[in-house]
Amino acid sequence: MEKLLARQTEARTIRRIVGIISISIIIIIGALVLSGYLYVKSALKPVNSKSEQQKRVVIPIGSSVSSIGNILEEKGIIKSGFIFKYYVKFNNETGFQAGTYRLSPAMTLDEIVKYLKTGKLTKNAEIKLAIPEGVQLTEISNIIAKHTQYKNVEIMKQLDDTKFVTKLMKKYPDLLSKDILNPKIKHPLEGYLFPATYYFYEKRPSLDSIIVKMLDKTNIEMKKYQEDMNKKQLTPQKMLIMASLIEEEATSKADRHKISSVFYNRLKVGMPLQTDPTVLYSLNKHKERVTYKDLEVNSPYNTYRIKGLPPSPISNAGELSIEAAIHPSKTNYLYFLAATKTGKVYFSSTLAEHNQLKAKYITSQK
């Protein structure tokens, strides 16, 4: 009996040891898989999406994909030559041309591959369009008009053309839904032209190609958040609307994630969003202060009169605001305000707290 008990004890000990070893192996494998996934995900992104720098890159004749990847990594154009090699193989890309290129750390792998195949970056860009964060479609049109042969009127006409927009919807089915053709919307493509610096190597690029390049960038950015959007049941339209509100309300000292939480909390309890930038968008105005008379404007964008989100974005949002729209902080805040002098944003959960902060940081500083 003693031997039997000893063997049972020994068997339990062995099973316990085997179980611990198995769990440890699973954890290690899981950690390796996760770290590998994060590494690949990071390596597929631009080195610096906001960079305006262009670097001289020489691709010698007869260079293999591996050597091209190493050159690009050494020059700081991509994050990993190893990932570049397998990205090229996975997409069956061939026909790279030797030569001297000027490449930017802001370029995606897809853009780099495209230009290395066509040789288009062997000279300086003819046109450079710098699109800031938080600007509206009419302002983007002004920027395009300033640097190209196109007039503002024809640019806006093209951007608002239903036939053209419908073609774009077919080209970007995951990005542009039928929601953008809602008759309440001012401009179907408002909020969809991503803030970045765009280079064109032709003296007279077509207007379509300019718009498509900006939409390509937005499409790439949105794919980064596709999994998160699916989990939260957010469409690109709703996500970009929220991101645009955050972009317009945020100061340099603001916590965008907390501002995002305020908007989501208000939606949850059925409160109007009451954000001033939507009023100004309704009025087609830019001004520092919104008056009580302004709040009376009858518009589907006026979030003082309507509940829920406005029908479309009110500007183009940058990456920080998009990320905040996807991942709001977990708070009970329902109010926020920016101090007049410092620009610091203060958050509160009740109207009484909000009014106290308003009296302290707004009224007292007039």
UniProtKB/TrEMBL annotation:
PANTHER family: ENDOLYTIC MUREIN TRANSGLYCOSYLASE. It is a single-pass membrane protein. The record marks E249 as: Important for catalytic activity. The chain crosses the membrane at residues 20-40. NCBIfam families: endolytic transglycosylase MltG (TIGR00247). It comes from Heyndrickxia camelliae. This is Endolytic murein transglycosylase. Its main location: membrane. It is found in: Cell membrane. The gene is mltG. Belongs to the transglycosylase MltG family.
